[in-house]
Design goal:
About 15% of the residues are buried. It is flat and about 120 Å long. Among the domains are: about 100 residues, Ribulose 1,5 Bisphosphate Carboxylase/Oxygenase (2-Layer Sandwich), CATH 3.30.190; about 100 residues, 3-Layer(aba) Sandwich (Rossmann fold), CATH 3.40.50.790. It contains 9 helices and 9 strands. About 0% of the residues have low confidence. A 6-stranded antiparallel sheet has the order 2-6-7-1-8-9. The chain has a 3-stranded parallel sheet with strand order 4-3-5, with helices on one face. α4 links the parallel β3 and β4. By secondary structure, the protein is α+β, with helices and mostly antiparallel strands. This is Large ribosomal subunit protein uL1m. It is found in: Mitochondrion. Keywords: Mitochondrion, Ribonucleoprotein, Ribosomal protein, Transit peptide.
């Protein structure tokens, strides 16, 4: 009996109880509903070593886009053939057809005849521009006003002239300005009592028009748009019959150029005027500015056309 009451036996019995409680419910006479002592970890977890961002950047290799030249291939890469043989085909298996500008305009007129749609419906163009410049710079989105050779609107634009010179105000009214005046026009514009399609100003009054910046926003007079200058009659001549377009969503130009009942030659002339003005906003030495060009009427399908055929050719290319 003295052997079982020795300290060695007491330690062994305690170790056995600890092992049984840690390993789950006992299998020999121990109740499963008895409280269990869950062991607690008394040491801290080892922190993971974070890799330097510079090392990761050096290891990552940027994958360059693979450019495939289809000029000398019997068919385009990933397509079935250069052109379909049948009249009915799946479009994604063939490259998109690019039409001549004159042919595209004639197609819109045929669509209108076949679909019995209004003959005077508007004609739109949708251009995608390459806004890249040298050294990771880009062309800023711009707003431009051009004088179309063949107007498609019956009404003239309403133009307001800001000037404090009484003589200039009189000249402006004689040349078709709806309103002409100085700072006294600011409050009526803020109160929506008077409005106009375009706002032009002389340089001297421009600092006094600051309260109208939030109200007019894109219509606020700016020298880049040609709405600030000394020659008031010239500005009125442009903006009364001018057509305004702008770059939307960073690189897209979507605007009306004509109506479908106009002669094809007039539609082509308006198209050429707008495309030439668009391409003037980037140096020609950087390559084509227009990546994709689409023309469509209000009810027809979109027709892709070759924009380079509309632009005048440079003397170097003609040689």
């Amino acid at each position: 009996m003295k052997l079982f009451s020795s300290p060695v036996f007491t330690v062994l019995a305690g170790c056995q109880r600890q092992l049984l409680s840690a390993s789950g419910p006992a299998y020999s006479g121990v109740s499963q509903t008895a409280p269990r002592n869950i062991p607690v970890r008394t040491f801290a977890a080892v922190k993971t070593l974070k890799k330097d961002k510079k090392d990761d950047a050096e290891k990552e290799v940027k994958k360059e886009k693979r450019v495939i030249d289809d000029k000398n291939r019997h068919k385009p890469f990933g397509k079935t053939a250069w052109a379909p043989v049948d009249d009915v085909y799946v479009m994604r298996y063939y490259p998109r057809t690019l039409h001549d500008p004159a042919e595209a305009i004639d197609m819109l007129k045929k669509f209108q005849t076949l679909d019995f749609t209004p003959h005077n419906q508007p004609v739109y163009i949708d251009l995608k521009l390459d806004m890249k410049l040298e050294k990771k710079k880009k062309v800023d989105p711009f707003v431009s006003t051009v004088h179309l050779p063949h107007a498609f609107k019956a009404e003239m634009n309403r133009v307001l002239v800001f000037t404090e010179d009484a003589n200039q105000a009189t000249v402006a009214r004689e040349n078709g300005a709806v309103f002409a005046g100085g700072v006294e026009l600011i409050q009526p514009i803020l109160d929506d009592e008077i409005s106009a399609d375009f706002y032009v100003a002389v340089p001297d009054i421009l600092p006094k028009l600051v309260p109208l910046k939030n109200k007019l926003r894109k219509k606020f007079p700016k020298s880049k748009r040609g709405s600030v200058g000394i020659n008031v009659p010239k500005m009125l001549e442009l903006f009364k019959t001018g057509h305004e377009y702008m770059v939307e969503s960073d690189c897209y130009v979507r605007t009306q150029i004509a109506t479908l009942d106009m002669p094809s030659e007039h539609i082509f002339a308006n198209l050429q005027t707008i495309l030439v003005d668009v391409c003037s906003h980037r140096p020609a030495s950087l390559g084509p500015f227009i990546e994709r060009a689409i023309i469509a009427s209000h009810t027809s399908e979109a027709v892709w056309f070759k924009s380079e055929d509309v632009l005048p050719k440079s003397p170097e290319k003609e040689e």
